[in-house]
Amino acid sequence: MLGYKFRVLKNKGNMNNEIGLPLTLLSLNESHQAAVLEMGFYVPGEIELLCNLAKPRIGVVTNIGTVHAERAGDIETIALGKSELVQALPVKPEGLAVLNHDDPRVLAMAAQTSAHVITYGFTPEADLWAGDIHSTGLSGIRFTAHHKRQSHMIVSELLGKHSVYNLLSAIAVALELGFNWTEIEQALRSQEMVQRVRVFTSNTGALVIDDSYNASPTSTIAALELLHEMEGRKIAVLGDMLELGRYEAEGHEQVGRKAAKVAKKIVLVGPRSLLTRDAILDTGFPEEELRWFADSEEAAHFLHSILRVGQTVLVKGSHGMRMEKIIAALEEKI
Q1: Cα separation of the two ends of the chain
Q2: Mutual orientation of helices 46-54 and 75-87 as an angle, nearest 10°?
Q3: Closest to 74 in 3D by CA, of 273, 240, 248
Q4: Of 191, 267, 193, which Cα lies nearest the Cα of 227?
Q5: pLDDT per residue over 288-302, tens digit each?
Q6: Beta-sheet pairing, 34-36 with 58-61
Q7: How far apart are alpha carbons 76 and 179 in whole angstroms?
Q8: What is the tens place of the pLDDT at every residue in 38-91?
Q9: pTM of structure
Q10: Domains plus CATH for the chain?
Q11: Of 32, 183, 190, 307, which shows the fewest CB atoms inside 10 Å?
Q12: What is the spatial distance between Cα 81 and Cα 46, in angstroms, rounded to a whole number?
């Protein structure tokens, strides 16, 4: 969005750690008017180090999930580590913390910063909030954004209700940097939206939602909600979610229960997905509509034999599960 008015430097790919972020900063020059930098987290102290290098004026914290809990230990430690961003911001009025009001651990960071705080979410208690949210499958999303007694209709090609949170955080930053609502609306129409979810028609004729880059319980449940909004017979292809640590069983079980509500057929990949399978069967889901495979290559072969026109397939799993092999098989020309 900021690219509509500014020349912006941003991380490429996953260059968000103690190596990638300094390399990104080396590309900063006098022509850039803003830098948007993702900061990765594994253990406390990492974001503090990155902030010492980048000196951010605005910090956005989107959510606290169980991704990388295997390394961090627990979700409270993850929250502690991410709070290093808001603690590093300049005091108000120069510094700004943009916080997700709907995540209690993120909202608690308002008391840990000397910067000005703007919250966003889905309820009127947030400073910037979204109402009348409509997710229309492949047509994108629309909602009414409310801020300081003003209301504005927002339309975006981003997919899924969960994308509204990303838009709200971007709008909050844009307002801080002097955008008016007309410019925000024009930016959303004119700027190409970056989304990791890709939709294509496979060589079997089935429609495929490719969200195979990575997975956590939160992101997988959001992807299943998107699948729910789509037309056609719904099939969920779900791989293991890695690095969840003590939350491994709970996370896979949550996903299993959600998948059972959304999909007509479920294909699971990987040893941890046996936990997902048990949770699915506990719901009364038909066992004949549930398949498990040890790896993605086996799953890809099976999917080729059953997918047809009129079906919509979600492919989701942690990067280490190589779910992209399924995508490659479904895209391959035959």
Answers
A1: 39
A2: 20
A3: 248
A4: 267
A5: 999 999 999 999 999
A6: unpaired
A7: 35
A8: 998 888 999 999 999 999 999 999 999 888 787 888 999 999 999 999 999 999
A9: 0.88
A10: 2-190 (3.40.1190.10), 198-331 (3.90.190.20)
A11: 190
A12: 8
